[in-house]
Design goal:
The protein is α+β, with helices and mostly antiparallel strands. It contains seven helices and 18 strands. The chain folds into two domains: 155 residues, Yope Regulator, Chain: A (2-Layer Sandwich); 119 residues, Alpha-Beta Plaits. The longest helix is centred in the first third of the chain and has 21 residues.
């Protein structure tokens, strides 16, 4: 039989159906649903199995309006076949402020990558954040990792049914008295003092629109310390390349530093640079050591 465009189209259609059927056959969707503990839906046209979990445990208002979960308050995890017989998972998790870092640690500790953390709303009460995840592995491994993240949320809410409004640390002293020399020595970079506070800014080279950009154009990692040497707060921003993000996140979380945002600041830059914002409490020297460990990840 001669091959024409109609025959080719038919063959492509049949091949597509075969690939989709093969994908579903190679993905134990029942097992994924069983592990996570929620039913999912199969999208035959994309070869994706998706589980969605609406946040109904805590009412959320946006601009004074009680927001139904249907309007965007739902966590999800989508699974699709990947290379080597593995699966890929991508997802988005709805989190309140006191859930973000416990859930992030659960994701990182169980082999998932955390790829973004941001808000979707203004004037939301309680404040809602969205953490994006991804990963590759077996059905069992990925489903178990997602369940660990979602179980951590339940654990936080079981301890405090209403989202808390503070990290719970001791009040900072009314007068700042950070020893800048200690920070400079530990971070290996010079800084600037201001009324007892101390700030270090470390630039990174990049290009945008064919032009060199760096520290003063905003491609930098910075850390600002306030309080006293024994009772300090540090906040700042890490400029990381894509292949550094997971290592820096893991190191900061291991050091007890809270991550408060992960996003981009630019478009079409080279190399691709992401920014993660953080907040930490403790002794100034211990905080600086945690930051230095994360800086060292970037230099490997």
């Amino acid at each position: 039989m001669p091959v024409n465009k109609y025959t080719t189209s038919a063959l492509s259609f049949l091949l597509g159906i075969a690939v989709i059927q093969s994908a579903q056959a190679g993905m134990d969707t029942n097992r994924i649903a069983q592990i996570i503990g929620l039913p999912g839906s199969w999208n035959a046209s994309e070869g994706v199995f998706k589980i969605t979990a609406a946040r109904t445990d805590q009412p959320v208002t946006v601009d004074g309006w009680k927001m139904p979960p249907f309007m965007g308050l739902a966590s999800w995890a989508a699974f699709t076949p990947a290379m080597g017989g593995n699966l890929m998972v991508m997802g988005d998790t709805v989190l309140f402020q006191d859930e973000v870092n416990p859930a992030m640690s659960a994701a990182l500790d169980n082999g998932l990558a955390v790829t973004a953390l941001h808000n979707h709303f203004f004037f939301d009460e309680p404040k809602v954040y969205f953490m994006h995840i991804s990963g590759e592995g077996s059905s069992e491994t990925l489903a178990a990792a997602v369940k660990k993240v979602w179980d951590k949320i339940k654990e936080v809410r079981a301890a405090n049914p209403k989202p808390v409004a503070t990290f719970g640390d001791a009040l900072l002293p009314s007068t700042n008295s950070i020893t800048g020399k200690t920070i400079e020595t530990l971070l290996g970079a010079t800084g600037q003092a201001n009324n007892g506070m101390f700030k270090v800014v470390i630039g990174r080279p990049a290009k945008m629109s064919g032009m060199d950009i760096g520290k003063e154009m905003g491609v930098n990692t910075w850390a600002a310390f306030a309080g006293s040497d024994d009772n300090a707060v540090v906040d700042g921003d890490f400029a990381v390349h894509e292949n550094e993000l997971q290592g820096v996140l893991k190191t900061l979380r291991k050091g007890g530093i809270n991550i408060v945002a992960i996003h981009s600041h630019m478009t079409d830059e080279t190399p691709r640079t992401l920014f993660l914002h953080y907040w930490g409490r403790g002794k100034a020297a211990a905080l600086a050591k945690s930051l230095k460990a994360a800086l060292d990840i970037q230099r490997q």
